[in-house]
Amino acid sequence: MAYVERRSLGITPTERLDLIPLREEHAEEMAAVLADPALYTFTGGAPDTPAELRARYRRLAAGSPEPGTSWHNWVVRLRTEGCLTGYVQATVTGRTAELAWVVGTPWQGRGIATEAARAAAVELTAGQVDTLVAHIHPDHHASAAVATALGLTPTDRWYDGERRWQS
Q: Is residue 5 in a domain?
């Protein structure tokens, strides 16, 4: 059975994090979280303004226009600091979820991406998804470490300069 619901799944809180379904209201705080140009070293692009993020978040919250595809987007809140630190997203098609994660520069190196991505993976694989996929730039060692922690392994498939990792 394919999972096609448009709303993001609720994620059980982790030891340190809350994964909250993305809303347009998160744009202002997330613009600050994502403001460091260094975050775009491997993906390209530049930081969005709050207005650009609001428009993007509105589109994401509306759900995928493709039948049989659902989008799940969560902001990551670090409870001890009471602030958003990044996001995790998944595009689910059939029984495969493509995962992506970003943690703002000030919070990197603390295991937040691994903890958040693992929480999303656990929810997604609880009946809806059999296969997890991530696309990672070959020089992005931190994201490769997150993928490894999730049980993903690199394949010989490439897309847009990024290696496909898969469970």
A: no
Question: What's the domain range around 69?
Answer: 17-166
Instruction: Provide the residue type at 40 as one letter.
Output: Y
Residues, the chain: 167
Q: Which residues lie closer than 8 Å to 35 by C-beta, 6 or more apart?
A: 47, 104
* CATH code, 66: 3.40.630.30
Model confidence pLDDT, tens digit, residues 2-40: 323 334 566 889 999 999 999 999 999 999 999 999 999
Six-digit token string for 134:
């991530």
What is the rounded end-to-end Cα distance, in angstroms, of the chain?
Answer: 19
As for how many domains the chain has, the answer is 1
Give dist(CA 9, CA 92) in Å, integer: 12
Beta bridge partners of 96: 93, 131
Q: Do the domain assignments include residue 83?
A: yes
| DSSP H/E element including 57 | helix 50-62
State how far the Cα of 119 lies from the Cα of 107, in Å rounded to an integer.
Answer: 18
Q: Phi and psi dihedrals of 27, rounded to 5? A: -60, -45
The answer to whether the predicted template modeling score (pTM) of the entire model surpasses 0.90 is yes
4 occurs within a structural domain? no
